[in-house]
Amino acid sequence: MPLFPPVLSRLLKQHHGPLTADLVLEPGNFGLGRVPARLKPASAVTSICGYCATGCQLKLHLDEQGRAINLSPQAGYPVNLGMACPKGWQALDPLDSAERATVPLLRDETGKMLRVGWAEALETFASRFKSLKEQHGRESVAFLSTGQIPFEEMAFLGCLFKFGMGFLHGDANTRQCMATAVTAYKQSFGFDAPPYSYADFEESDVIVLVGSNLCIAHPILWQRVMRNRRNPQIIVIDPRATETAQAATRHVMLKPKGDLSLLYALAHCIVRDGRIDPASIERTEGFEEFSAFLADYSPLAVTERTGMSVEEIESLARTVSEPGKRVSWWWTMGVNQSYEGVRAAQAMINLALITGNIGKPGTGANSITGQCNAMGSRLFSNTTSLVGGHDFAVPEHRAKVAAGLGIPEEKISSEPSLAYDQILAAAEEGKIKGLWIIATNPFHSWVDSGRLAALREKLEFLVVQDMYYTTESARAADLVLPAAGWGEKDGCFINSERRVGTLKKVRQAPGIALSDFRIFRLIASVWGCEDLFVRWTDPEAAFRLLRDLTQGRPCDITGIEGYEMVDGLGGVQWPYPAREDGAPTPASERRLFEDSVFYTPSGKAKLLFSPPAPIPEAVDREYPYTLLTGRGTSSQWHTQSRTGKSDILRKLYPQDAYVEINPKDAARLGVKEHDMIRVRSRRGELEASVYIAPTVKPGELFLPMHYPEVNRLTHSSFDPHSRQPNYKACAVTLEKVR
Ligand SMILES: Nc1nc2c(c(=O)[nH]1)N[C@H]1C(S)=C(S)[C@@H](COP(=O)(O)OP(=O)(O)OC[C@H]3O[C@@H](n4cnc5c(=O)[nH]c(N)nc54)[C@H](O)[C@@H]3O)O[C@H]1N2
Ligand SMILES: Nc1nc2c(c(=O)[nH]1)N[C@H]1C(S)=C(S)[C@@H](COP(=O)(O)OP(=O)(O)OC[C@H]3O[C@@H](n4cnc5c(=O)[nH]c(N)nc54)[C@H](O)[C@@H]3O)O[C@H]1N2
Ligand code: SF4
Ligand SMILES: [Mo]
């Protein structure tokens, strides 16, 4: 069987010149194999880090062949100012791993994974998914993707799957991460628009971090906090005494999921005492109803739910409403990953709005995102929103996108996709029979992950497209498509402060692995829908298509010419609309809503609220501990597929799972440091070594998410508005092992 079927060879010739024998023998090279001319004379290129959404720029040092041999953080970049965390410094390490997927792997009837060429892999992909579609319709196959590939690739996937292959359901692992912030902003501001710039960390008088462990999860953003010369109060609201809480000026150790009650009580005090900003409230809708609602949330009324005293709450309310002080609210997964995360995020948005802390330096209700391109996926993945910051339900948006992409309008369905959990539930019911997983590892990272292992049996065909063949998800697949990773391809990411930045190809992908972009292009061809994607020749061509789609939307970036301009400007924050010739270049750091005009039809922000609900799985006599989960160290990344491959990073974190437990609980159970203990929930169990520390309260435990068994314990419950999983609180019990 030839490596490429004739149709693919034709396609490759068309866009990359003739296929030489070399290229066929070593197709990792094909098309993109030649070292791009622009890399040759340079000794370094820049690239945005491929881990977290901080979006640090790295300078990659190249040898004569244009291959990166080392890196250093970029001094002049407005995000990281010459700094990087351990993951950034070691970003090249994971590329060389022996566990890289270098050829497609296909499971045979006996269950063995066989190495196959691209032709067989892609023909199998197309024939299996086509036959499911013919037999069971367009709702029988779904994709689950990522916040960690360039948005040109995300958009290609979303458009290919929905408009080209004609399926309906696709969601991204960003659902696990910031669907809550997306929904909160959309409902309150009329568009998913984190309003801040990182400079706001440096310009704030009161920095409130809610469920956010910056020191570990966004170490360079913590460095930005440290550059603040205004002697700020730094308040951390977190049930754990995290590294960040220990470094803060005040730690509010509230009960898990006490946030919503606490935030309402703060608003209660502020409204009661008239510490509000009438001009700012003028720019909102719903203040009267909100004030009436707050009557029930006096500090006294919420002491039980928050575990805080009346005095603590009153004092905090005064601090966050000090007249003349710039107050900024920042939240991450302690808020988003909750069964009532949207309302908790909106409770912070409400506080910022009623105290006038929005649209000014050092203020804002600011969601910090997680993955390097979470923000790109929010605008371009074509999952929840129609590509380019549009809405599937709005006919004008569908017409605009169809015209912009050059595809027939009827290819764009007005129906929404199922959300992640609904896709998996449909698979459990046997309605979804085929699944395509791209650049995410849900067999480890999804909540209550045992359910995934169980539903695997129900799936007729599972495709996993990853850099490694050894991830928990890849091991479960019928077909593994080997993908190039960060450093092996071009494209753009968007960071938490809405800054577009570029990444560069500085290494060859191993074996015959291909960039995701290339894989999507080949799939369009074998599927027979390549006509719809003729303009998607390379990442920068796709960038231009997507850029033009944003015209007139809040995320308008039509002023960006191309990658070179992005690099020249030190990254570009959206919006960046096209300007008249000679008009001044906008400032490099910009915040939104300086004019107090929001994206709602009335231009006013909405104050949204609803009563707190009980924790879905509260502790009881049988399962008396609340389990918290989250990031362990700055050297570990999620399911460890990448950070676990770096010899240096591996020395910087514990190799095996450990559970943080309060000294009182340890004494009661008779366990010592390093003893093994069994942590059991209603769904699963794991063994972990004991780490005794007062960082958690008695009755609470913390397990880092990086160990594969952790999500066997967590509880499938979801925010009703965002459908984000409630990863951070479930009931468990402990048993001493030895
Ligand atoms: N080193 C490293 N950095 C990362 C990542 C990584 O894997 N490793 N992942 C990236 C990604 S994708 C993300 S999303 C971010 C996550 O960044 P963070 O959200 O900062 O990290 P987490 O540890 O998941 O959660 C933050 C805190 O929420 C607290 N928390 C739990 N329950 C509650 C609650 O009910 N209320 C409040 N107020 N707090 C609560 C936890 O105790 C924890 O300290 O990090 C990004 N950066
Ligand atoms: N208990 C608990 N669980 C959690 C969380 C928690 O706090 N607690 N946090 C949740 C959050 S916020 C997140 S973001 C998720 C993260 O969950 P995942 O996204 O599942 O975790 P990763 O390990 O980052 O998986 C990314 C995968 O993509 C692959 N990959 C990397 N680059 C590329 C590429 O360019 N192309 C392709 N094709 N593959 C690539 C990697 O090898 C890896 O297998 O975990 C969630 N799970
Ligand atoms: S802080 Fe985030 S973006 Fe910066 S180097 Fe570390 S992982 Fe990369
Ligand atoms: Mo995340």
From TrEMBL:
Signal peptide: none
PANTHER family for the chain: NADH-QUINONE OXIDOREDUCTASE SUBUNIT G, RESPIRATORY NITRATE REDUCTASE
InterPro entries associated with the record: Asp_de-COase-like_dom_sf, CT_Nitrate-R-NapA-like, MoPterin_dinucl-bd_dom, Mopterin_OxRdtase, Mopterin_OxRdtase_4Fe-4S_dom, Prok_molybdopt-oxidoreductase
UniProt xrefs under Pfam families: Molybdop_Fe4S4 (PF04879), Molybdopterin (PF00384), Molydop_binding (PF01568)
Gene3D superfamilies given in the database record: 2.40.40.20, 3.40.50.740, ADC-like domains (2.20.25.90), Dimethylsulfoxide Reductase, domain 2 (3.40.228.10)
Alphabetic keyword roster: 4Fe-4S, Iron, Iron-sulfur, Metal-binding, Molybdenum, Nitrate assimilation, Oxidoreductase
Protein name: Nitrate reductase
Family: Belongs to the prokaryotic molybdopterin-containing oxidoreductase family. NasA/NapA/NarB subfamily.
Keyword Iron: yes
Domain 4Fe-4S Mo/W bis-MGD-type span(s) in chain numbering: 42-99
Listed cofactors: Mo-bis(molybdopterin guanine dinucleotide); [4Fe-4S] cluster
